[in-house]
Specification:
The complex is a heterodimer of chains A (95) and B (101). Chain A is built from 3 helices and 5 strands, in the order ααβββββα. Chain A has helices at 3-13, 19-38, 84-91, and strands at 42-45, 49-56, 59-62, 69-72, 75-82. In chain A, α1 (3-13) crosses α2. The two termini of chain A are 22 Å apart. In chain A, the strands form 2 sheets. In chain A, strands 1-2-5 form a 3-stranded antiparallel beta sheet. A two-stranded antiparallel sheet of chain A has the order 3-4. In chain A, a hairpin with a 6-residue loop joins β3 (59-62) and β4 (69-72). Chain A has 95 residues and is of the alpha+beta class. Chain B has 101 residues and is an alpha+beta fold. Chain B is 43% helix and 29% strand. Chain B has 3 helices and 6 strands. Chain B has helices at residues 5-16, 20-39, 85-95; strands at 2-3, 44-46, 50-57, 60-63, 70-73, 76-83. In chain B, the strands form 2 sheets. Chain B has a 3-stranded antiparallel beta sheet with strand order 2-3-6. In chain B, strands 4-5 form a two-stranded antiparallel ribbon. In chain B, α1 packs across α2. The two termini of chain B are 13 Å apart. The relative contact order of chain B is 0.11. Classes of the chains: A alpha+beta (95), B alpha+beta (101). Chains A and B meet through α1, α2, β1, β2 and β5 of A and β1, α1, α2, β2 and β3 of B.
Chain lengths: 95, 101
Amino acid sequence: MTRSDLIAKLAERYPQLLAKDAELAVKVILDTMASTLAQGGRIEIRGFGSFALNYRPPRVGRNPKSGDKVNVPAKYVPHFKAGKELRERVDNPAS
Amino acid sequence: MTLTKAELADLLFERVGLNKREAKDMAESFFEEIRLQLEKGESVKLSGFGNFQLRDKPQRPGRNPKTGEEIPITARRVVTFHPSQKLKSMVEKTYHGKPQG
């Protein structure tokens, strides 16, 4: 499923709304989630999961072509942890 | 700062103009549609944000950390999230080299 499939499914669920409202809703949700993480915040959706940032310490990397050492600065990377309901539904779709 | 469905519903009310009831339902349905796809065994690709994928993990040996007893960890299907390049660089830019916290 892609972003546009998701918009189509939501538009189907809410026939009283305009198609562009579903599109805007998806944009608002995803933009807000991304900017929350970009500002160092967390996202917690009960039954779905949580998003947070993981710290990556600085390290010395290598340019694989030349073999030169490269300093890779510390950074944060987004991390998702599936919630209980999502974990159970994915592992055991019958139940 | 923690974002939840309640805040997302408020934003859908303010910025999309849905009524309070619709905004709350829409915030719930957004995540439910993603869960339904994953439950069907299909991945979800949200451009600009990231991809949710499924991974089938084989059984592996585990241990009860309290008793030391060996118990197999059963085979299972799990969800993994891979942030898009855009999300990774947004996060990296804000937090470049800043101390942990």
